[in-house]
Input
Amino acid sequence: MFHSLKRGTLASVVTVTCMALVLNGCGDNTNPGPLSAMVFPAMPPTVQEISNPLRGQYEDLLNPLFPQGNPAQQRYPAWPASYDASLVVSWRQLQPVDPRTLPPGAPDDRKFDFSAIDDALTKLANRNMRLALRVYAYKSCCNDSYPDNTNIAIPDWMRSAATNYPAPPNGPRPGVTQVVPNWNDRGYLDAFSQLLAALGRRYDGDERLSVFEFSGYGDASGNQIAYLRDVLGAPGATPEESIGTLWYYSQFRDQSITAASIRQLVAANVDAFPHTQLVVNPQNPEAVRELFVDDVTKKLSMPVGIRSDCLGVRAPLPAWAEANDSHYVQSKDAVVNAIKQRLASAPVITEWCRLPNGTDPRSYYEKGLHDVVRYHVSMTSSVNFPDRDSTSMMDSKLYLLWAQANTSAGYRYSVETRPGSQSLQGKVAAISVVWTNYGSAAATEQWAPGYKLVDFSGAVVRSLPATVNLKTLVHDDSSQSREEAVPASSTESVHVDLTGLAPGHYTLSASVDWQQHKAGASHVVNYAPMALARDGRDGAGLYPIATLDLPRDSTTRANGP
Output
């Protein structure tokens, strides 16, 4: 419904009209030159969803996309397929065997159980998809049951580096003992660092793994311990004590890891995955500071991005980075500006939040949409929003808001030539080409825009590089209520050398080719050229932008006397 609304009406009419004009010279010859612009208007998010890697709705926790993942929503058409999914795995599942019981030099396959990750990678690759991976050592939510009434995510052989917290009777999981790692324990940090190193050895060179989420601290590796503070009666250091005990300022008593321990985990994550996109849940300001410094960025193939857990309820930026009463905001700490700048240059991956009691669903989806636009969100999850598992039909007005949040997420590029900009100087024809991003975020992976001149038989006779930098095409907009991203454009002049071209009809086309690869990859992923937010794509992923008609007499002149 939403993502195909008006498809085949306005866009196709414009396409047919344009093609008719092209056959008659495309109507604009005010400037001399054989190139003629072709007009293909961009499709806005309210008309069509555009599937591309690392953007839009993704299969979070391997859950199918909405609405097709919920039988009660059959009124709405299936959402276009995603290229991305995420998996969260416990340390307990990955390393059940105590490494001290194995002989020295035992291979990783004997030390670890990688089967869950391997299985996910294989199944996703068969569907032309990639994986984002996170590992946790404690997770407060939300199993249906717990063996022996014990919530434990670390291996049994690490129990000495953890604390048992009996949950209070009135808590969400009464009678369930919570086994929480001592985050600053040297044995814990060293063992988890060794786990990360093993994961890196196996998967950093695997192109099927697109993202690794900073892992090793906090509830579900979310870099905060609010559940311990709010439910288990074990808050972190007070603001007054935090600098002396943690060596950084902690305002909300939701942190208990020290700066030294953070640095060890940062080094372990970065050393394990230098060729894979890293993202971090930004709840801990010191972890963000350490991951965003230049010395870390230099070690990585891409700057560290953001992973946010509560779209629809809380902003992707944490309170410490933008609340008026935040110590970091009031002191103008450099880390605040660093994280705000990073929103536009690295992926922002979000997960919807469960609807709090008493919250109006419309305001929830409206906030989700506004935050997608404002914070340059790249991906929105397939889980946790209130209608995800509802047994009743989703209200159509709420569906439109939800759908617009998804279609607005990430990059939506289009390309067109500017009518009237054609020119001819000697043997070189030129025309102005405009690239526009209508999405909330820029593409952060390696894509190569370029042009091809194709003859009447479909053969490519010229390949021309583009100079546009797609990563910079994003509008910095701090509006709290905007429902659509402000388009960001760049114009360049494309020059076609006519020397040696035979008389005939040619088409100048644009494409954006996939070049996101890891050196010496163990598994290679190749994708077709980027889908652009406009009509006209051919089977090779090319989009026509201009025609070139070369009659015999002009060809003779172009080739000389």
